[in-house]
Amino acid sequence: xxxxxxxxxxxxxxxxxxxxxxxxxxxxxxxxxxxxxxxxxxxxxxxxxxxxxxxxxxxxxxxxxxxxxxxxxxxxxxxxxxxxxxxxxxxxx
Length: 93
Prior knowledge:
The chain is an alpha+beta fold. It has helices at residues 2-12, 23-37, 77-83, 89-92, and strands at 42-47, 53-54, 59-60, 67-72.
């Protein structure tokens, strides 16, 4: 009803200027829960900072700098960086 619409408007913030008051995070959380309940696979990928590998040989030069991130199938790296709940997801943001 009207109270739900009011809550959604409040959570949307001032969207016309790019301000979010929690709606985007709520949507991401619901998408993650749907992915989990639909049985989508959780994937793990490694991130290596540009200063930790040699571009010419494509060899990692600093193993300590790399970190793993988990996500569900279909999530973009941007989604993981902004809304990921995995251990190292905040490092991407």
